[in-house]
Design brief:
This protein is an alpha/beta fold. The chain is 52% helix and 14% strand. It has an eight-stranded parallel β-barrel, surrounded by seven helices. α6 packs parallel to α7, α8 runs parallel beside α9 and α9 runs parallel beside α10. The C terminus is likely disordered.
């Protein structure tokens, strides 16, 4: 109930206005968002990439905040920002970084053609700088369109990938299709949108089982996989499965900036490969509310931020 309510709030403009007026932005930007600009995000990534106290650095993935764009000018601005970001990454050879793109930020709600045109521009620029581009997966009604976008991008470059959501009942079929097409380069996430039971699994147990089954399916097929979750149960399952499976494709753990950093530090101490997703930009509210919905302690942190304690 709490999770679905928070996700509903993430879509309400009046709630966003209230959060901004309450001053939530100032503190939570420091916790979960790298800053307003790509320069701030790049600085955070460079800091994380350095060896510290004998621990290896973490790789990065940048995400410009924003979604559900219906103004072509805004979509064009997002495309231009990502092209500039890809060039900046290319000029930082010491930085292991890629970019993640939301289809609706590129104008998917305007048209498939608008989003595809923008995505391919980003991919072309990224290819020039040897930067990988990944597509985020959003609500269930965008899955088919997103996979179509990914196929168009993958036809241009192997330095592309797509997120798949373990809680969607259809995902095993989607994963198999990508495997059969030879383009299974997947960031596997649990899923953070509110979906009806006929479309998505609910509850920790069923979602974890689905995640582990998908991970086995992808690894057995030689796919490249990002194990993108903060769930320690799934971290242990991934390690166990990797030890039992002849993993051919590359794999790594992936986490979100500001979320359970102690887990990331432990991974680095074990010598495990970690990539941290670094969001930035002024449109932080929907992203923030989904992070709060995922974990009650995030909600407590936000409350303390509002009341100044």
């Amino acid at each position: 109930m709490l999770r679905s309510g928070l996700i509903w709030l993430s879509q309400q403009e009046w709630a966003e206005r209230g959060a901004r007026s309450a001053g939530v932005e100032r503190l939570l930007v420091r916790r979960f968002v790298a800053g307003d600009t790509s320069a701030e995000a790049l600085a955070v990534a460079r800091g994380m990439s350095r060896t510290f106290d004998g621990l290896p650095g973490a790789a990065a993935m940048f995400s410009l905040l924003g979604e559900a764009v219906t103004d072509p000018t805004e979509a064009e601005q997002a495309v231009a920002e990502y092209c500039t970001l890809a060039a900046a990454i290319g000029e930082s050879p010491q930085l292991d970084a890629r970019v993640a793109v939301k289809p609706t930020l590129l104008g998917l709600d305007i048209s498939q053609q608008t989003a595809e045109r923008g995505l391919l521009r980003i991919v072309e620029t990224a290819m020039e700088h040897e930067v990988t581009v990944e597509l985020d997966m959003e609500a269930s009604d965008t899955v088919d369109a997103t996979l179509e976008l990914y196929r168009a991008a993958a036809a241009r470059s192997e330095q592309t990938g797509v997120a798949l959501q373990a809680y969607l009942r259809r995902t095993a079929d989607d994963a198999q299709a990508l495997i059969d097409e030879g383009i299974a380069r997947v960031r596997l996430v649990k899923g953070a949108y509110s979906e009806p039971n006929q479309i998505a699994h609910s509850g920790a147990g069923p979602i974890r089982r689905s995640y582990q089954e998908l991970l086995a399916q992808l690894w057995q097929a030689g796919a490249d996989v990002g194990v993108a979750t903060h769930d320690p149960v799934l971290h242990r399952a991934a390690r166990r499965l990797a030890a039992e499976t002849s993993v051919v494709g590359s794999w790594e753990f992936q986490m979100l900036y500001g979320v359970r950093p102690e887990l990331g530090q432990a991974m680095r101490a074990r010598g495990e490969r970690l990539r941290v997703s670094i969001p930035y930009g002024e449109r932080w509210y929907p992203y923030l509310m989904r992070r709060i919905a995922e974990r009650p302690s995030n909600a407590l942190f936000a409350l303390r931020a509002v009341v100044g304690r």
